[in-house]
């Protein structure tokens, strides 16, 4: 998780900072398969969450849809979309840092936890977290990220006014 938080923190120095990072590692060896950060804005794609992007990269790299034998690490508790993608991919385990509640202090979230999504499925997956929660939440409270959140909110408000 520390390696993922460090990787994700690099975006905080860019002009498009994001606190959401994800990696997929081999469950038995811990070897990194792939990792990515959220790219909703740059890709103009509301599904381009870090977890979904990482799952897509992993399945393409392995040339298979199953990620059985792999663990997904993410800096924030997966939203229902991301947790569902992890379940459909068949990951063994999901480990998250910051919680949905912490993230919701700064940006919109669907208030259904990853454990609840997993519990309501018939697809086995262990959900662990928060792990290194404070270190991951620090990504959300970094000054550059707080400025970006303020712009996200302003942009959303302006777009809502245009759409009226």
Q: What would you say this structure looks like, in words?
A:
It is a single chain. With 164 residues, the chain is α/β, with parallel strands linked by helices. The chain contains 8 helices and 5 strands. A 5-stranded mixed β-sheet has the order 2-1-3-4-5, sandwiched between helices. A hairpin with a 5-residue loop joins β1 and β2. α3 runs parallel beside α4. The radius of gyration is 15 Å and the shape is globular.
Structure described in brief:
With 164 residues, the protein is of the alpha/beta class. The chain is built from eight helices and five strands.
Order of helices and strands: HEEHHEHEHHEHH
Total count of helical runs of at least 4 residues: 8
Amount of helix: 40-55%
Structural class: alpha/beta
Low-pLDDT runs of 5+ residues are: 156-164
Distance between the termini: 43 Å
Residue-averaged pLDDT, rounded? 93
Give the C-alpha Rg: 15 Å
Largest sheet: 5 strands, mixed
Give the strand line-up of the largest sheet. 2-1-3-4-5
């Amino acid at each position: 998780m520390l390696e993922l938080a460090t990787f994700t923190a690099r975006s905080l120095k860019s002009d498009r900072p994001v606190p959401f990072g994800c990696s997929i590692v081999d469950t038995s060896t811990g070897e990194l398969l792939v990792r990515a950060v959220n790219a909703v804005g740059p890709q103009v794609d509301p599904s381009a969450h870090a977890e979904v992007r990482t799952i897509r990269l992993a399945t393409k790299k392995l040339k298979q849809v199953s990620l059985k034998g792999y663990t997904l690490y993410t800096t924030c508790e997966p939203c229902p979309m991301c947790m569902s993608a992890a379940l459909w991919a068949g990951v063994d385990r999901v480990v998250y840092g910051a919680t949905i509640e912490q993230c919701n202090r700064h940006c919109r979230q669907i208030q259904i936890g990853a454990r609840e999504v997993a519990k309501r499925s018939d697809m086995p997956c262990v959900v662990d977290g928060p792990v290194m929660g404070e270190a991951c939440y620090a990504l959300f409270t970094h000054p550059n990220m707080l400025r970006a959140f303020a712009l996200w909110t302003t942009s959303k408000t302006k777009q809502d006014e245009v759409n009226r």
